[in-house]
Design goal:
Elements: E1 18-22, H1 27-38, E2 42-45, E3 55-61, H2 70-78, E4 85-88, E5 98-100, H3 106-127, H4 134-138, H5 144-157, E6 163-166, H6 173-182, E7 191-195, H7 201-209, H8 226-229, E8 234-238, H9 245-257, E9 259-261, E10 268-270, E11 274-279, H10 283-288, H11 294-300, E12 303-306, H12 317-330, E13 337-338, H13 340-348, H14 354-368, E14 373-374, H15 381-386, H16 415-433, H17 438-444, H18 449-459, H19 464-469
Parallel strand pairs: 1-2, 1-3, 3-4, 4-5, 6-11, 6-12, 7-8, 8-11, 13-14
Antiparallel strand pairs: 9-10
Helix pairs in contact: 5-6, 12-14, 16-17, 17-18
GO molecular function: ATP binding; sequence-specific DNA binding
Keywords: ATP-binding, DNA-binding, Nucleotide-binding, Transcription, Transcription regulation
Protein name: Sigma-54 factor interaction domain-containing protein
Length: about 475
């Protein structure tokens, strides 16, 4: 498989993560290191004396000699704090972990290294008390927006502060709310969710506060409301923006006074719940339109949390797809894998339904392509049309950017000179965005690292560190 099939994993504004590589000398070992570097990681020869926290993964190459790496595997087994193990080649006897066949499959290599990286990050943060490890399991992704979200949740979870989760439909707002609950001191108490937009206005008060027997027609017995059921725990009010105005007044009183009455009763009941609300609506616009109370908004918006739409964190798509496929496999479905071309096509799609749409698509594909590799042609036709993907394109021909329309000047243009200047500008910009890391810039320009180095020599372009040294 050519390097062009692989996608870059690291962002330019973060340090390059280290991957330890243990292998015998040879062409395959050199190629493995080149692939690891091209994917945005820093391949470093394994050294048992190095600090354990230095690397995010340990790749052991067993090609042609499964027993040759026995000492390295024994070292890993004896060091629980060692980074996750990824074996490339033959599977050693008694091995438990991630194994990649040779030649490497792009999507599987990406996912293996990303899982190792995420696990290492969560382990370090949990041991230092910064980040509860459950967050990494509940909120899948390595994008900057997801990292910020996990940090916000870790900070607010230990308090009883009211949280307002905002985001488009399908972004996982209830998952965020449950993550806050399970990271909080209330984790052993109930987490109760209610969709304010799915309950008729005349029933919502009874649903939230409960009712006494005979309070209204059909109330044959007394019934606890959601506030009572969530006592000591967390109450999640989903789609709070759809709550009727009269109900907003009553909710505001409960939030202020921490007391309520069941429908049909005049006896006040104390409530001890942590309230988390969520909405896909612009509540400030709703306030201007008279559909939402301003005083309730400020009471709920003590700690706002924004969940990014999937189109703004497309680098999370491979991990999310793998997560949903693994979940279906645990439920008895066949395991599916996405080809490099399919992953590229998913990155071109706009995802109006966000993470929920991706989860539904993976479930559909698990039925249509059981225990197989999903190719571009297996994806929904409507998705491919909206992503402007041609079924006749190969994996390498599918590009992640659309070509802009360019007008030809009336007096013509020196095309060779124009393209040379354009190429030079793009190379300079790519190197600047990549912080001078040639491998990262090469990925952004969709070319081999060696090709980029040759073009840099051609145009006399130096990396920042080279320019500084000279």
């Amino acid at each position: 498989m050519s390097k062009s099939s692989f996608g870059h994993l690291d962002s330019a504004d973060t340090p390059t993560p280290v991957v330890w590589v243990a292998s015998h000398a040879g062409a395959e070992a050199d190629q493995l290191r080149a692939i690891v570097e091209f994917l945005g990681f820093d391949p470093v020869n394994f050294d048992a004396s190095a600090p354990l926290g230095e690397a995010v993964a340990l790749m052991v190459c067993t090609l042609g000699d499964p027993t040759g790496m026995r000492e390295v595997l024994l070292w890993h087994a004896d060091n629980p704090a060692a980074p996750p193990l990824v074996v490339v080649g033959e599977e050693p006897e008694g091995f438990t972990g991630t194994r990649l066949a040779w030649p490497l499959d792009a999507s599987q290599t990406i996912l293996a290294l990303e899982r190792a990286r995420a696990y290492s990050s969560a382990s370090r943060e949990s041991t230092t008390g910064i980040m509860p490890p459950i967050l990494d399991r509940m909120l899948i992704g390595r994008s900057q927006s997801m990292l910020r979200l996990r940090r916000l949740i870790a900070r607010v979870a230990e308090t009883d502060t009211t949280v307002l989760v905002q985001g488009e439909t399908g972004t996982g707002k209830e998952v965020v709310a449950s993550a806050i609950h399970y990271c909080s001191p209330r984790r052993d108490r109930p987490f109760v969710a209610v969709n304010c937009g799915a309950i008729p206005a005349e029933l919502l008060e009874s649903e939230l506060f409960g009712h006494e027997k005979g309070a209204f027609t059909g109330a044959l017995t007394a019934r606890q409301g959601r506030f009572e059921l969530a006592q000591g725990g967390t109450l999640f009010l989903d789609e709070i923006g759809d709550m009727p105005l009269p109900m907003q007044v009553k909710l505001l009183r409960v939030l202020q006074e921490r007391t309520f009455e069941r429908v049909g009763s005049n006896r006040s009941m104390n409530t001890d719940v942590r309230v988390i609300a969520a909405t896909h609506r612009d509540l400030e616009a709703s306030i201007s339109e008279g559909r939402f109370r301003e005083d309730l908004f400020y009471r709920l918006n003590v700690f706002p949390v924004e969940v990014a739409p999937l189109r703004h964190r497309k680098e999370d798509i491979p991990l999310l797809a793998e997560h949903f496929a693994a979940r279906l496999e645990r439920d008895g479905r066949e395991r599916i894998r996405l080809s490099p071309g399919a992953l590229k096509a998913l990155n071109l799609y706009h995802w109006p339904g966000n993470v929920r749409e991706l989860a539904n698509m993976i479930e559909r594909l698990s039925i249509l392509v059981p225990d197989g590799t999903v190719e571009v042609m297996d994806l929904p036709t409507k998705m491919l049309e909206l992503a402007e993907v041609d079924l006749g394109q190969s994996d390498e021909q599918i590009t992640l950017t659309a070509s802009p329309e360019i007008g030809l000047p009336e007096d013509g243009v020196d095309l060779r000179e124009y393209l040379g200047q354009l190429e030079m500008s793009f190379i300079r910009k790519a190197l600047e965005d990549a912080g001078g890391v040639v491998a990262h810039a090469a990925h952004a320009l969709r070319m081999r690292r060696t090709t980029l180095v040759e073009k840099m020599r051609k145009y006399g372009i130096q990396r920042q560190e080279d320019a500084t040294e000279s």
